Amino acid sequence: MTSATDSSNPQAPPEEPSAEPDSPGTTATSVTTLKGQALIEAFEREQLKPSGALPEIFVGDTVRVGVKISEGGKERVQPYEGVVIAKRHSGLNETITVRRIFQGIGVERIFMLHSPQTASVKVQRRGKVRRAKLFYLRNRVGKATRVKQRFDRDA
């Protein structure tokens, strides 16, 4: 018979993350052992950009996103400016969809805000909109794609 504390028992409760050193002889500076979801959460916390690095972004805002591009051995930052038409997710997976018109053709790019490829995000102007997603702008051309400016939030 096996006991309820047997590790091979599928009914046994999952083990809690251990913050104790690996062996009694190690010092407190050793790496703590984390398991499962706790390990993933710890990694995600490390990857998040500091709260002051990203401005508060709303749908309808015109933003300039600096994208890191590596060509050969060199790396440069290329700006991409357009209107935020959608925001999705939160935390490490937070993304914005930016739309701009380039040579008469609408171009949309999705940026992960906490990605190392996204060097900077700067709000150029605030937009006054009444929707969470501005997909209707895809069907509009020319001056009809303009978004009214909002003055009650700082840019």
Describe this structure in words.
The chain has 155 residues and is mainly beta. Helices cover 7% and strands 32% of the residues. The protein has 2 domains: 17-47, no CATH class; 62-141, SH3 type barrels (Roll), CATH 2.30.30.790. The protein has one helix spanning 37-47; strands at 62-71, 74-88, 95-102, 105-112, 118-125. A 5-stranded antiparallel β-sheet has the order 4-3-2-1-5, with no helix packed on it. The longest helix is centred in the first third of the chain and has 11 residues, at 37-47. The radius of gyration is 23 Å and the shape is globular.
Could you provide a short overview of the structure?
This protein is mainly beta and 155 residues long. Helix content is 7%, strand content 32%. The protein has one helix and five strands.
Mean pLDDT, all residues: 85
Radius of gyration: 23 Å
Strand order of the largest sheet: 4-3-2-1-5
Low confidence ranges: none
- The number of helical segments is 1
